[in-house]
Amino acid sequence: MDLIELGERVKATRKSRGWSQNKLAQAAGVSRARLEALENARLAEIGFKHLLRILNALDLDLRLTELNRGRPTLEDLIAEEAR
Question: Full-prediction pTM beyond 0.90?
């Protein structure tokens, strides 16, 4: 997931709660301009602290997992289907 996708998820979650950008920015302790830039993919870097504040205000969290661990690749799926 990249910053653009994170911004889209933040925006969708905020809207599903009926919150304005001002309300979320205030709850997260960040500027509305920073939040607006994140939601509209106009922010190259937000900073981890600010991102966590926004996610926590929405009851979202960030999880780390090992990349593709235990997940089949496209080649694995094709080989399985060919059997």
Answer: no
Place of tokens 């900073």: 47
Averaged pLDDT score across all residues of the chain: 89
Tokens representing 24 are 């979320």
> What is the residue range of 10's domain?
1-83
- Within its chain, how far is the Cα of 64 from the centroid? 13
Contact call for residues 51 and 62 (beta carbons, < 8 A): yes
Looking at the chain, list the stretches that DSSP marks H as alpha helix, in order from N- to C-terminal side.
3-16, 21-28, 32-39, 48-57, 74-82
CATH of the domain at 24: 1.10.260.40
Burial class (CB in 10 A: 0-12, 13-18, 19+), 41: middle
* Cβ-based burial of 54 (10 A; exposed 0-12, middle 13-18, buried ≥19): buried
